[in-house]
Amino acid sequence: MVEILSDYELDLMRKAGRLTAVVLSELRKAVKPGVTTKQLDDLAQMIIKEAGGTCPCVGYGEPPFPAAICTSINDVVVHGIPSNRVVLKEGDIVTCDVVAELNGFMGDAARTFLVGEVKEETRLLVERTKECFFAGLEKAQIGNRIGDVSAAVQACAEGYGYGVVRELTGHGIGREMHQEPDVPNYGKAGRGTRIVKGMAFCIEPMINMGKRNVLLGHDGWAVCSADGKPTAHYENTVIITENGPEMTTYEEGLNG
Ligand code: MF3
Ligand code: CO
Asked: What is the pTM of this model?
């Protein structure tokens, strides 16, 4: 069932989203060569707890996810587990994916950050993955369908010759991190759930520089590109209001 949120609940989504945005903005400042992904996780946990929130990723799923955020480097698409043995180095890209719960509601957002100087083709992949998100967001209008969002993301990515990951999708969000509907990054316009006021969902293109195929890592979490080429991710939580789509986890000048 697709949950429809009241104006009061949408306001709580904004508050959780704002906290998620602040965490991403602090992570962006912290990302540099020599920093471990465990340090990034500690920083995120500290900010969320300090604000009175919780970290729903801790203990999530099977095997239980052991950290608050996902840190996915280079060919890792999503769900990289932070570790004190994983050190960022010049030329890497690292996706930080943050979920924060505050007052019973959630924000979920991801950014792929550049570590120092990065190859131009990789920088472009990161920039264009963000562009794919906004192509999808533009279609998240009352009266449209989820398939309109999906098709727009796919057209943007494939127009650049990139591979669109299909095994993982965006998702509804609210009191839980993953709710209905699924929001795939590929599909047909005019299909799927109709978009109405009060819906909340994450749009999150996961875009490979090479082929779309992915593999699951030995830790049961990390998902990597099968061809080993770099991959990028960009995600915001979106609420649908009478004024159109609103990103709760994005703030111009903060993490925009
Ligand atoms: N933030 C991810 C998403 O966009 C989910 C995190 S998986 C977890 O769906 F295990 F870390 F919780
Ligand atoms: Co998500």
From this structure: 0.98
pLDDT tens readout for residues 94-135: 999 999 999 999 999 999 999 999 999 999 999 999 999 999
Within the chain, what is the greatest distance between any pair of CA atoms?
A: 48
Measured CA to CA, the distance from residue 137 to residue 21 in angstroms comes to 17
State in Å: Cα 235 to ligand 2 middle: 7
Residue 10: what pLDDT?
Answer: 98
First to last CA, the chain: 31
* Low-confidence residues of the chain: pLDDT under 70: none
166 CA distance to ligand 1 middle (Å):
16
Q: How far is the CA of 118 from the centre of ligand 1 (A)?
A: 26
77 lines ligand 1 (CB under 6 A): no
**Residue 178 near residue 171 (C-beta atoms within 8 A):** yes
Task: Tell me which residue of 144, 104, 130 sits closest to 12, measured CA to CA.
Answer: 104
Does the C-beta of 60 come closer than 6 Å to ligand 1? Answer: yes
pLDDT value of position 53: 99
Phi-psi region of 186 (alpha: psi -120 to 50; beta: other; left: phi over 0): beta
Residue whose CA is closest, atom 6 of ligand 1?
57
Q: What is the pLDDT of residues 22-42, one digit of tens each?
A: 999 999 999 999 999 999 999
Q: What is the pLDDT of residue 253?
A: 86
Residue ranges covered by each domain of the chain: 7-247
CATH class as words, domain 7-247 = alpha beta
By most ligand atoms within 8 Å of CB, the mutation choice from 23, 60, 167 for ligand 1 is 60
Angle in degrees, CA 94, 64, 201, rounded to 5: 60
